[in-house]
Every structure is written in structure tokens, then in C-alpha cells.
Amino acid sequence: xxxxxxxxxxxxxxxxxxxxxxxxxxxxxxxxxxxxxxxxxxxxxxxxxxxxxxxxxxxxxxxxxxxxxxxxxxxxxxxxxxxxxxxxxxxxxxxxxxxxxxxxxxxxxxxxxxxx
Length: 116
Known about the structure:
Layout: H1 5-12, H2 31-55, H3 62-82, H4 87-114
Helix pairs in contact: 2-4, 3-4
Keywords: Membrane, Transmembrane, Transmembrane helix
Protein name: Holin
InterPro entries: Holin_9
């Protein structure tokens, strides 16, 4: 009697379809939720850049500002995505990660307009 694929899967301990064992994956939310979170995150980054520019009058080194603006949301967002166990945590991580480009873009635009 020929060996069937069901028998081979049972012997191998494979439970998922196609012979792939899925144990630990990042839970992805719906595409519209992920896109919305990233768009809102970029908008929040723009608003945060303008607000921080108006509120902070101290002289700060540009490399420190770039490190804070890109590094902090980048690290927090990637950690949230990689360590997420729920879809909403992945969405929140994408939101936090999307704050960095909006913030950096607005700060660069402010510097260009001001002749910095």
C-alpha cells in the first residue's frame, strides 16, 4: 500500500496545511488598520515636530535631535512589533514607528525654509 500524504504528515507531527509548522509569528492586523495607523502616525510626527520646534527654544546639537527623533520611535516601534502577541500591539508599533519619518521630514523642512 502506498504511503499517503496524511500518513507522512501524521508521522512527522505536522499539523498545518502544506507541511509548515507555524509556532511563533507576528500577528498582523487587517491591511486597512495597519495603513491607517501608519498614516495617523506620520501626521502625529508632523504635528510633534512643529509643536516641539515652537516650544523648545534651547540650542540643541543636530545629531542629538536626529538620534532622538529617529532612534527613539524607531527602536520602540520595532520592539513593539517584534514582541507583540496581539494584533492591536502590532498596529500600535506601526503607529509609533511611523512617527519618526513624519517628525524628521517636518524638521528637515523647517530647516530648509529657515535657511539652516
